[in-house]
Amino acid sequence: MVSLEVTCGNRSITLRTKNSSKAKDWVAAINDAGLRPPEGWCYPHRFSSFAPPRGLTDDGSKAQWFIDGHAAFEAIAFAIENAKSEIFICGWWVCPELFLRRPFKDHTSSRLDALLEAKAKQGVQVSGIRCELHFFPLFLPVNMRRFVCLFISKSVSY
């Protein structure tokens, strides 16, 4: 383990890396940032943020914005189909019969339970977290119990 201390004014932070080449990468990146012009970082930004807005192409972020269910469900189906080792699901209302692609009759294999079962059979670990929301007592427990029972019956870990 290699550590590196960065100090600016009266503040300092210790960064730890696995090897010296990573530490050298950090030093180079910090020095490079110090040599660049301050534009973009020294002005107020939307929502009073200190940092300029960044997108998928600028910083390599994997976060995406969706404005409708069609694009979001398509991205979810794509992510499940391309999962190699694990799938995590977290939600307060997860319906196993949900079709992620439309029209339904053209995409019968795009049901959430079918996609997850297929990935589990390929050896991908499927896990989920059920969020407890007590202000939906009539709907949530029934649906989530059904979801859990469906996965347990198909030998998918939940």
Protein traits:
alpha+beta; 4 strands; elongated; about 160 residues; two-stranded antiparallel sheet; about 15% strand; two-stranded parallel sheet; 2 domains
Q: How would you describe this protein?
A:
One of its GO terms (biological process) is phospholipid catabolic process. GO terms for molecular function: phospholipase D activity. It comes from Carnegiea gigantea. It catalyses: a 1,2-diacyl-sn-glycero-3-phosphocholine + H2O = a 1,2-diacyl-sn-glycero-3-phosphate + choline + H(+). The strands form two sheets. A two-stranded antiparallel sheet has the order 1-2. A two-stranded parallel sheet has the order 3-4. The two termini are about 35 Å apart. The model is unreliable at about 135-140 (pLDDT under 50). The chain has five helices and four strands, in the order E-E-H-H-H-E-H-E-H. By secondary structure, it is of the alpha+beta class. Helices cover about 35% and strands about 15% of the residues. The longest helix is centred in the N-terminal third of the chain and has 16 residues, at about 20-35.
Short description:
The protein contains five helices and four strands, in the order E-E-H-H-H-E-H-E-H. The chain has helices spanning 20-35, 56-59, 69-81, 112-121, 140-153; strands at 2-8, 11-17, 86-91, 125-130. The strands form two sheets. Strands 1-2 form a two-stranded antiparallel sheet. It has a two-stranded parallel ribbon with strand order 3-4.
